[in-house]
Structure formats: structure tokens, C-alpha cells
Amino acid sequence: MGRIIQGATGDWEMVIGMEVHAQVISKAKLFSGAATEFGAEPNTQVSLVDAAMPGMLPVINRECVAQAVRTGLALGARINLYSVFDRKNYFYADLPQGYQISQYKYPIVGEGQILIELENGETKHVGIERIHLEQDAGKSLHDQHPEYTYVDLNRSGVALMEIVSKPDLRSPEEAAAYLRKLRTILRYIGTCDGNMEQGSMRADVNVSVRRPGEPLGTRCEIKNVNSIRFVQQAIEYEARRQVDLIEDGGTVEQETRLFDPGRGETRSMRSKEEAHDYRYFPDPDLLPLTLDQTWVDDLGAHLPELPDAKRERFISQLGLSAYAASVLVAEKEHADYFEAVLDQLEKSEAKPAKTFATQVANWITGDLFGALNKAGLSIAASPVSAPHAARLQKLIMDGVISGRIAKDVFEIMFETGDDPEKIVEEKGLKQVSDTGAIEGFIDEVLSDNADKAEEYRGGKEKLFGFFVGQVMKKTQGKANPKVVNELLRKKLDG
Amino acid sequence: MSIDKATVEKIAHLARIEISEEALGPMAEELSNILTWVEQLSKVDTEGVPAMTSVVDVRLPMREDVVTDGNCRDAILANAPKTDHGFFVVPKVIE
Asked: What ipTM was assigned to the predicted interfaces of this complex?
């Protein structure tokens, strides 16, 4: 669903490409044995290599290479068995080497693609141009002192994957869907935690505008946008700025811009212009990276089920709606929780998962997500474990408690983390299905409301619901509603 | 290949090397001479010869993903002109 901007002189189309920097999950850095963990004391996770002391040499971390290959495979991309590390030269206080080791001409991963889903259910393939491995820089803190910048090199040398898309995106919504999907895939395969707040996933956004169907316009690159919402805002603003500029007779200059979230606008970073002359050349400290096809194949064989395949399976084999499947699949932890509940139930009920998958999915996306959202908790911190959730579903399926009571039981579970069976037992919440007992309550209700019973029999059929409500009230919600309905019909209509 | 003074000035700036106006001319000449000398290599016919990346036939050695280094902040900061609370402290660099 491309976005058309209506300008004063006609329609314009936005063209967007993304460069995503994804921090690789590994214990040690790309070229040194220092730790990568986030949040350590400043400069404690720095080796002499990361600080670029004279004479230090880089030695590549095999796992970081494997992570890049896994990412490429998950995006259906070509894996280059031969790739080369280059030096990208620039000076900045948090880059002690004076160059970043990156890949330029021969990246480790070539073309691939990502399937994105839009709000309206449409899908679209977005091309991946390449993925290369490179070092992250250190961190500069500008707000610690009025005259000085403080530099922490803990991040210096951590492995990054730069994932470059083709200019296939046509609206802020598509850009957001692309980022979300990429994040989901990276989290599924465990190559990046996708945490944009902590900066482990950062996006540079390339935006240009053109008349529909015409050649590409000149693009501007918006650097380091650190949330999906900001990416959308930045694109919205930048595309409009370019249209206004062109329509006023100006021309877009290729430049680097910065998004200011406070003002919701982008502005030029003129100082960066010269830095674009990076004078890349092959790093003489590193031989070309060569991989064996068998090693690549082995990594591919051990990839987990990917989100698209999982979604497809949830729909075709478990009978979920496309919407429910998409919601559950978006976060690996959610899909895992759902499948853990299904596994438990399949064992205890001895029925195929398909017969109750939709009920469980509705409960997770409705009751559980609602409660987690309200409490501001992730599913990993859910007070209701998957086994307990399965037991709650079983109590409903076996008719031990009604759906109404299940909501109360769930509330208690969420507060206390208790086993639902224990809660039902202790609070005496078992559903009453005993017809004799229910009949007694019905008789009471009918005699207490003899006038209404007359009205009902006289044709005011809407009152049926009132009687059901009264009986449920008398049993404190414990009566089996199906039995109540049946008996009540007999008594009133018979 | 010949290099002009403007190019020398640009390279010097990118490399953060200070170079006086008088030195630009001689430097341009020297660099041009070096490049011309190296350019002789292009006379060799290298058609079909793969680029040589190492004189010994070895593959890029790899390390296992194990934390073996770091935790040496004092050594890291030892040569820094200015530090504070474990940070390097440098003149303000901000956009």
C-alpha cells in the first residue's frame, strides 16, 4: 500500500530504503575476547585490541560469523563463501582505531527478501540487498560535563550486522512493518535481541520522492533513528519536506540528516558530509573470510522454525484465523507459550490440538495479553505459567468451571501465581451441573418472580435472559449455563 | 599519475595532518612520483590471475566465542591525558 503525497503540482510517491544495524548476540566481541554484555561499568569490557593499542591484531570470532550466516539463511539470502574485511576510515572520539573494520565490496551475505504484512492484511516482498559484518563503535556521552565528552569503549568492537534493504518500501507503514518483521526474524533465530531502546537495533532511513512511475529522485539519509514510531515520523516529515522543496523550485541535495524527536523534524548534519570520504581499503590485518558450504548447510539445518512457516502451520494445521496466527507469531515468546499450553492439553485431554487451539489462542490474545498489558509485564514475567494456563483451559473444557468463573479464577491466578485446580478447590468454584440442584434454584426463581413468568408466557420472550441471570446469581455463577438454559426452557415453555 | 595541491590539502585534512601552504607543492610532487612509480605494476599482464592476499597458504584463523579478555580498565586508561570515573574524557564533540 504505497503512500501518495498530494503536492500543489500533482501526486508524488515516496521511496524508502533501510539500513539496519543489528548488534549480534555473542559472548565475546567480533575481533577480541572482551565481553559484550550491556550495562557494565565503563571501560571494563575493553581489551587492548578494542582500545586499538599499537601492535594489537584482530582475530575473528567464529560465532559472530555463524550468526551473520544464520541471518542470511533466514532471509533466504545468498551466502558468500568468500568475503573481505575492509577499513572504513574516519575520525571520531569513540573510534580508537581511526577506522571501522567493515565489509565493502565483498559482503558475507548477498540478496534475499522479507515478506511483510500490512495492517489491512496485504503482504509484500521487500528485497534485501546485502548484509555485512562490522565493528560497533564506543559510546560518547555529551551530557556529563559542560566542556567535555565522556567516552566508554565497552561497545567498541561488538559485532554488528548491517542489513541493507532495496528501495522497495513506499510508505511509513511499510517501513514500520519491515522493521517489525526483521526484528521478529532476528529474535526467532537468536542473532540479535532487537532492542531498539538499548540501541541493539538502529535504523538509518533513506528517503526520496518521485512522480509515480518515474526514475528515482535524490535521496537523503536519516541517521540513527531509534524507534519504529520515530522512523515513521521521520519519513513522513522528510518526504513532505522534499516535495515542498521541489515544488518551490528547489532541488534535493544528497545529504545526511538527523531526526529530532522533540520537534518531529529532520535537519541537516553538514559536518558529516566530508566524513563520507571513507577511503575503504582491504584490512591488511585480516585474510579474506572463506566458509565451507557444509558448515553453512549445517547452520541452515539447525535454524528454528521461522515466523512465516509457523504462521502458516498455525493456520493450516491448527485452524487458527490468519489474524490470531499473526498476533501469536509476532513474538517468539508468545508462540512458544501458546505451543507449550497446547502440548500440555494434548497430553491431558488426549484430543488433537486442533480441537482446542482456537479456544487457547483466544484466551492468550484476549485475557492473558490484556492482563499482562495492564500490569506492564512481558510474557516471560507472566505470573501465570504455561502449565497453569493449560490446567485452567482443561477445567473449562471438562466443564468443571464455567467460562464466567474461569475469568475470576484467572484473576486470582494472575495475582497469586497459584495453581487453578487449587483455587477452584479452595474457593468451591466447581460448576454445578447436577440437574436436581439447579432445578431447585429455578423453582425458587420462578416462584419469586411469578409475575414475570406470566409475562414471559404471554409472549415477552426477552425475559428469558433475566431468568438465566437470576439463576446464575443464586448459584454465584457456578451453575452450568447450558444446563440452566435447557431446564429453564422446559419449565417455562413446557 | 599526478596529484595537485588541492588534493594534497584534502587528503591531509581527512588524515588530520597539518601541512603548511609552502609544503603543499613539494608534497604534491613527491606523492605524484610515488604513484607514478607504483603505476609501473599495471604494465604486468594479470589477466586471469586471482588477487594474492597472503604469501602463505592459510585461511583466516578464528577464535571461539569465549570471554578471555577485558577487565583491565587501569591499563586501558593509563595513557589517556584525562579520565574521570572510568571514562576517557575528551574535548566536547557534538553535532
From this structure: 0.90
